[in-house]
Write a structure and sequence with these properties.
With 204 residues, the chain is of the alpha+beta class. The protein contains six helices and eight strands. It has one domain: Alpha-D-Glucose-1,6-Bisphosphate, Chain A, domain 4.
């Protein structure tokens, strides 16, 4: 199945591109995602946790990341498997950064994925595209906050000025297990949004 999404963040392309270089931080912006190890060949090991009511799944796997500095585009190829129900996921994500103006960036995403196993029944239908849109909006909001915090930190200012950063300060914080992405909560919010849209239309 293929999905296309796009969003804008209030930061220049160079800032966003540099921020996406940090794979752990970028993954933390995605609900349910966590990177546990990053290897030197730009291969990331991690887990994506989801919850569908009483059903919980943790897709452990690997992803290979390619980045093109020339046109600010990238390719992510990943695969994961849930150990409890043996559901398997394969996904390819293409992304490109485009300048909106000197202070804003548009990020375009193309996702091609497949799900095989017991949970594949939840990957069909138009509702999946709406859920993907909700996840994209959450990612955009979290990415905006991450980039803003990074730009405001003293370490970023020191780095931009060429000052040496002590190794104890430059170390990343210990990873915290990501909370599972709650599909039921997302679906309920979409239903309420649709109901609200119906009422607004009837009163317009």
């Amino acid at each position: 199945m293929q999905l296309e999404q796009s969003f804008e963040v209030a930061h220049p392309v160079a800032t966003v591109w540099q921020g996406l270089e940090d794979l752990r931080a970028t993954a933390s912006c995605i609900p349910g995602a966590e990177i546990t190890d990053v290897q030197q060949n730009r291969k990331a090991v991690g887990v994506f946790r989801v919850q569908l009511g009483p059903i919980k799944a943790a897709f452990a796997g690997e992803a290979e990341v390619e980045r093109n500095d020339a046109d600010h585009s990238g390719l992510i190829k990943g695969a994961g498997r849930d150990g409890k129900n043996a559901t398997r996921v394969n996904a390819t994500v293409e992304y490109r950064l485009l300048p909106v103006n000197d202070a804003a960036t548009r990020i375009e995403l193309k996702v091609d994925y497949s799900i095989a196993g017991p949970l594949a029944q939840f990957s069909r239908g138009a509702i999946v595209k709406e859920i993907a849109g909700s996840i994209t909006r959450m990612f955009a909001s979290n990415l905006e906050k991450m980039l803003g915090a990074s730009a405001a930190s003293p370490l970023s200012a020191a780095s931009a000025a060429g000052a040496a950063i002590p190794s104890s300060q430059s170390m990343q914080a210990a990873p915290v297990e990501a909370q599972p992405l709650n599909f039921v909560s997302l679906m309920l919010s979409l239903i309420w949004r649709r109901i609200g849209g119906i009422f607004r239309s009837s009163h317009s």
